[in-house]
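> @MW can you paste both from yesterday?
MW: sure, first one:
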Amino acid sequence: MEDKSKTPKIKIIHPFHEVGSRLRQIRESLKKTQVEMAPELGISLPMMQSYEAGKHLISPVGIVALVEMGYNANWFLCEKGEMKISDQPVTTSASTDNKALKSVVKALWDEIEDSDANISGASAAGIIALAYTEYLASDKDYPRLCDKIKALVQIADQGEE
């Protein structure tokens, strides 16, 4: 009989763990507990714990809240650029862009859930950046946005198999 104690254990790190780790970095940089941070992101404490543990990718509501707090979504999702892009909260003059970003992130989140796609945080960040730019250029044509995201998710999902 084989001695299983000598069999090396392989730990697979899912991209959600990396995003969760960055969420923890943000929270710790603010010197906040999970209990204090969860309401600021519009999420429950169990979801905050789940996100930081890398069990789930943070919801669109949470991503938008981080952007409104001045954090770089590109850094948060794929560790590109600076962690913080502004020391000031996003003002209401930028609310139109925040609404557009929220629409893009929600459309992506819905498509991932509907299609059962498995894409990395880096792919999600790339899709958000591309879709956001095209969404603004198309005068916020939401059906066109959803079609574009569906196509991008399919491409990303196939590339990560």
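MW: second:
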Amino acid sequence: MAHITMTANEQRTHVQRAVYDATRLFFIEQGDASAQYLIGYIYFKGRGVDKDGTKAVKWLCKAADQGHLKAQVHLGMMYRLGLKVPKDGAKAVKWLRKAADQGYDQAQFQLFEMYSKGQGVPQDPVEAVKWIHKAAEQAHADAQFSLGGVYAQGAFGVSKDIVEAYKWWDLAAVQGHKNASKERDKLAQDMTAEQIAEAERRMREWALSDT
């Protein structure tokens, strides 16, 4: 049998990999959520293994059940978009809500999208407004832009308020949202100087309260 030799670098890499695998296995067996998330992500992406949605969900669920934020969001988006699993609105909402309840603005915005459009769940204007406000208050630019539209149109049972609409579009524009400044400027054409001044005052007040 031929004797296979390794260079010093190859030996070092081999040892490092063995240590890494042993460490990862230890944390997985101990129920470490970050290790479980990593395994789920590896199966989802197919990094060094065949892609396997079933195994990805198994490990992501273990991590998510322990409150792992990234695992909850990952599962929510998998079920919302049908990524390696059948689309399931109820499961998408379940996991996105857990992440949203932890204060994750992107999960809050995703819940707004689902409830406002009835995507995978019954349309619910009350839930839609609740989550868009939470995301916008955390300076999520898309949420601020969408909330401006809600106030401009008086949508989802919210009273029409062009001053509030200007405020949220202005805040989104400051963050570089590509459509916010256009909508703000178009709205300003139908506003008085006093209304614009009030909107800008509210924006400054919001900015100060966020510091």
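> thanks! The domain at 24-88 is CATH 1.25.40.10 (Serine Threonine Protein Phosphatase 5, Tetratricopeptide repeat).
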